[in-house]
TrEMBL record:
<keyword id="KW-0325">Glycoprotein</keyword>
<dbReference type="GO" id="GO:0071949">
    <property type="term" value="F:FAD binding"/>
</dbReference>
<dbReference type="InterPro" id="IPR012951">
    <property type="entry name" value="BBE"/>
</dbReference>
<dbReference type="GO" id="GO:1901696">
    <property type="term" value="P:cannabinoid biosynthetic process"/>
</dbReference>
<protein>
    <recommendedName>
        <fullName>FAD-binding PCMH-type domain-containing protein</fullName>
    </recommendedName>
</protein>
<keyword id="KW-0274">FAD</keyword>
<dbReference type="InterPro" id="IPR016167">
    <property type="entry name" value="FAD-bd_PCMH_sub1"/>
</dbReference>
<dbReference type="GO" id="GO:0016491">
    <property type="term" value="F:oxidoreductase activity"/>
</dbReference>
<dbReference type="InterPro" id="IPR036318">
    <property type="entry name" value="FAD-bd_PCMH-like_sf"/>
</dbReference>
<dbReference type="InterPro" id="IPR016166">
    <property type="entry name" value="FAD-bd_PCMH"/>
</dbReference>
<dbReference type="InterPro" id="IPR016169">
    <property type="entry name" value="FAD-bd_PCMH_sub2"/>
</dbReference>
<dbReference type="Pfam" id="PF08031">
    <property type="entry name" value="BBE"/>
</dbReference>
<keyword id="KW-1015">Disulfide bond</keyword>
<keyword id="KW-0732">Signal</keyword>
<comment type="similarity">
    <text>Belongs to the oxygen-dependent FAD-linked oxidoreductase family.</text>
</comment>
<dbReference type="Pfam" id="PF01565">
    <property type="entry name" value="FAD_binding_4"/>
</dbReference>
<keyword id="KW-0285">Flavoprotein</keyword>
Length: 531
């Protein structure tokens, strides 16, 4: 089977094909933005959530398409295949390495922005919902709450994240210890495959349905919609977001204890722990830099029970009643997105965060044994090397339902045996095209990652696909794609770290559904090649 080769004649050939195909399948055409249109750069950059990928030096799509009907996505697939064009599909634009908006390969590509395919339909009686891939988590939570205050869904906390990519990579959040990942709670999907067919779970087959729930759907097609199994949530949850000075011995003891306990406490409680430097004024009125430990949590119950549980499990935190707030489940996402001035739930429908985001780079690890205290201090001490508040280390606990699901149930394999996930993060404000500044900050985070090598998971050194990191390996798209061994060996360098042995099953699914490797990017599952 020959591999897909970029053979674009001219952009006009593609656009002409699209106009003909769209007219034959729909009463309207997708909105098309080309570089000559005044709206082109505004549309391209509006949903790039990492400004690092707004750099003028990066390759740009020769067309951005914002379809309003599923048939228009089919037309893009047909014309892209006919004219040798790669497709990048964008839901919320949060891919950490910008792969939904830009390309690191010298090949012609288009961006399909699904922002107009964002409907949410909730069925309270069956406790289910259909959500189109262009919707954000905020839109999903808002629409669920419109129908019921006692239904929710276990996905991420950031309201601007698009469901299309988030669900296809796993989807971790405050409910995950109780109900599993978002991908664990998907019961159907609609996808357009490399042949342009619209498939649901029954017609796509169980192997493809397995692959797109945690294995990165962009390797296999374009997901149009997900059907979700909603979960019960109480009428009232309790939240807190408290900061403590890490230099205090009590806080150090608490952090070390958190490592061993956060994955084992009551499943109704999920405590995220993060660290960054901050400016502080001492007793003499002098400014100094301190290291803050932030404990951010949701408890699916009231404050009284939360305080009892915290006193039992984490007395060193000294959590006070006035540091906790009771609210509805959906209101907790307003709170955790740092809207704390009485904003209405409508704020969840916005696509802009309530905090500044500079250009950034992130990496991640899984931890299986508590990190020694001296190593923790060494890791956190490196935050002082970055500008105040710009380096950030966050810890997300495992346990509960996550441990009960097998590694092979879906492609996401990070289950029993993990204490928590670490995300290392740095951002900066220099111009996106400032290569020197980018190198300085990315050198810092790579040094931090190297420092942690002995203390995190091994064989493989596992990482979370939704915290995508091209440092761990890329496909050789422009090199030798004629050798199955080279293809698979190259991709396995990064694939094993994301998916462990599930990577090889993903390769077999890819070979069945997309043998010519039409859906491809710098970290996409390759097919076995045949000649």
């Amino acid at each position: 089977m020959p591999t897909f080769k970029p053979i674009l004649h001219t952009p006009n050939d593609f656009l002409h094909c699209l106009a003909i195909s769209s007219n034959s399948t729909s009463t309207s055409q997708p909105i098309v933005h080309t570089p000559t249109d005044p709206s082109y750069y505004t549309t391209l950059n509006a949903n790039i959530q990492n400004p690092r990928f707004c750099s003028p030096s990066l390759p740009k799509p020769f067309t951005i398409l914002t379809p309003v009907h599923v048939s228009q996505v089919q037309a893009v697939v047909y014309c892209s295949k006919k004219h040798g064009v790669q497709i990048r599909t964008r839901s919320g634009g949060h891919d950490y390495e910008g792969l939904s908006s830009v390309s690191n390969n010298n090949v012609p590509f288009v961006v399909i922005d699904l922002i107009n395919l964002s409907s949410v339909s909730v069925d309270v009686e069956s406790k289910s919902a259909w959500v189109q891939a262009g919707a954000t988590l905020g839109e999903l939570y808002y629409r669920i709450a419109e129908r019921s205050e006692n239904l929710g869904f276990p996905a991420g906390a950031c309201h601007t994240v698009g469901v299309g990519g988030h669900f296809s990579g796993g989807g971790y959040g405050f409910l995950s210890r109780k109900h599993g990942l978002a991908a664990d709670n998907i019961v159907d999907a609609v996808i357009i495959d490399a042949q342009g067919r619209i498939l649901d779970r029954k017609s796509m087959g169980e192997d493809l349905f397995w692959a797109i729930r945690g294995g990165g759907a962009a390797s296999f097609g374009i997901v149009i919609a997900w059907k979700l199994q909603l979960v019960d949530v109480p009428s009232t949850v309790a939240v807190f977001d408290v900061k403590r000075n890490f230099e205090h011995d009590t806080t150090k003891k608490l952090v070390y204890w958190w490592q061993s306990r956060a994955d084992k406490v009551d499943e109704d409680l999920n405590i995220f722990l993060s660290f960054r430097t901050a400016s502080s004024i001492d007793k003499e009125g002098n400014e100094k830099i301190v290291l803050e430990a932030s404990f951010q949590a949701t408890f699916h119950g009231g404050v009284d029970k939360l305080l009892q549980l915290m006193e039992k499990e984490f007395p060193e935190l000294g959590l006070q009643r006035q540091e906790c707030t009771e609210m509805s489940w959906v209101e907790s996402f307003v709170y955790h997105n740092e809207f704390r001035d009485g904003e209405s739930l409508d704020i969840l429908l916005t696509r802009k965060p309530n905090f500044h985001i500079g250009s950034f780079k992130a990496k991640s690890d899984y931890v299986e044994e508590p990190i020694p205290e001296d190593t923790l201090e060494g890791m956190l001490g490196m935050l002082y090397e970055e500008a105040v508040g710009r380096g950030w280390i966050a810890l997300y606990p495992s346990g509960g339902k996550l441990n009960e699901i097998s590694e092979s149930s879906i492609p996401f394999p990070h289950r029993a045996g993990n204490l928590y996930n670490i995300r290392y993060y740095v951002d900066w404000d220099e111009d996106a095209g400032n290569i020197t500044a980018s190198k300085i900050h990315m050198s810092w985070i790579r040094k931090l990652y190297d420092y942690m090598t002995p203390y995190v998971s091994k064989n493989p050194r596992a990482t979370y696909f939704n915290f995508r990191d091209l440092d761990i390996g890329m496909d050789n798209i422009e090199g030798d794609t004629t050798s199955t061994f080279n293809n698979i060996a190259q991709a396995s360098i990064w694939g094993i770290k994301y998916f462990k042995n599930n990577f090889y099953k993903l390769v077999h699914v890819k070979t069945r559904v997309d043998p010519t490797n039409f859906f491809t990017d710098e970290q996409s599952i390759p097919p076995l090649l045949s000649h």
